[in-house]
What does this fold into?
Amino acid sequence: MTRDIVETAWQSLRAHRLRTGLSVLGIVIGIASFSIMYSVGEAARQKTIQALKELGGDILRVSTKADKDRPNREEISLNLKDLATIQATCPNVLDVSPEFTNNAEFFRAGKFQSFNVIGVLPIYFSMNKIQVARGHLISDHDLQYYLPVCLLGEELAVELFPEKEALGQMVPINGYLLKVVGIMKKTERLAAEDINRAALIPITLAQRLFPTKKIRTIYARGKDTNISTAELSQFFYRRFGEEQRFEIQSQKLILETQQKSIKIFEYVLWTIGSISLLVGGIGIMNIMLVSVTERVREIGIRRAVGATKWDIKIQFMFESILLCLLGGLGGATLGFLASRLISRSFQFSPVFSGKLLLLAISIATVLGIVCGTYPAVRAANQDPTIVLRYE
It folds into this structure.
C-alpha cells in the first residue's frame, strides 16, 4: 500500500514537471538559507573557540586610545621600564609582553606590498601560544645583543620567497637585512594583528630600526581577569593620571563580541529562511489545492472502488511531503555549494554534517505535513456521487 501511494505521488509530480519545479523553489531557497546559516555559524563558532584556546582566556590586551575631546593632545605610551613596574606592583599580573608594531614593504609583481613588523620579547611566544614549524624562536641572547634576526609567518614567508625555502634567507626591513631564523606555524588570533602575515623581531632591535620607540600595545596574563584589570587601571592612573586613555580588553570579551556578531548574522539568515519557507509553503498549498480541483473525478473513482477518506488523505499528504523533501534535498545541496563559495572569500571551512542533512529533511517533512493537511482533508471530503459527474 505504501509503495503504491509513493509511486502514485511520484507519477503525479512527474506529470507536471514545470509546476513541480516552481513549487519547490521556495522550499529550496528556505532550506538553503538554513544550511548556510548552520554551516557558516558553526564554522565561525569553532574558529573563535579554537582561537581562544590557542591564546588563552586569561590574556588581557592593553592598548592606548586617542582622546576624542582633545585630538591634538600628545599620545601617551609605555616603555620597557613600565613593564617591569607593572609586574612589580600588580600581584595578580603574572606576565607582561609588549607588541611594538610598524610597517615594512617589499616589491613584488611590479608593485610594493606592505607587511607588519612586530617587536617582541621572548615571553610573547609562550603567552600567544606561538610555535615554529621550522627553525627556532627569538631568544634572550638575540634581544640582549640586538641581533638582526626575525621570524616569519607562514603566509608572509610564501609571499616573500615563493620559489625557495624562506628559512635562512635575508629580509630587508627599513634598510637593514635580517636573517630568517624561524617560520611560525599558522595560528588563529583574536587580537588585531595577523601574525601569519607578519615578521617578528627582537623589540630592542625594532626600537633601533624605527624612529618611534613608543609601545602602544601590551599583553598581560593574570590569575583573575577582573582583579588584573583593576590593578592595571590603578597602575595607569598612578603613572599617567588618567587611566581612561588606555583600553583593557580580555580575550573572553573579544570572543563574546564576535559571538554576538555571529548571532546577528544567524538571526538574519533565520529570518530570510523562514520567510522563504513560508512563501514556499503557501505555494505548495496552492498547488495542492489546484491539484485537488483537477483530480476530483479521479478522487470519485477511487472512492467508488473502495478507497476510504483516510486513503485519499494519505495520497495527497504524500504528494505534499514528497514535494517538500525534493525542496529540502535541493536546498541542502544549494546551501552546501553556496557555503563552499563563501568559504573561499572569507577563508574558513564550512561545517556540513549528517545533522544538517537530517535537520533539512525534518523541516521539509514537517512543512509538507502542515501545508498538505488542508488540501488532503478537502480532497477526502469530496462527495463521490457528485465528483463522478465532474467534467
Remarks:
- Residues 251-294 form the longest helix (44 residues).
- Strands lie at 59-64, 93-108, 111-120, 132-135, 149-152, 170-173, 176-184, 198-202, 217-222, 246-250.
- Residues 64 and 76 are 7 Å apart (CA to CA).
- The mean pLDDT is 80.
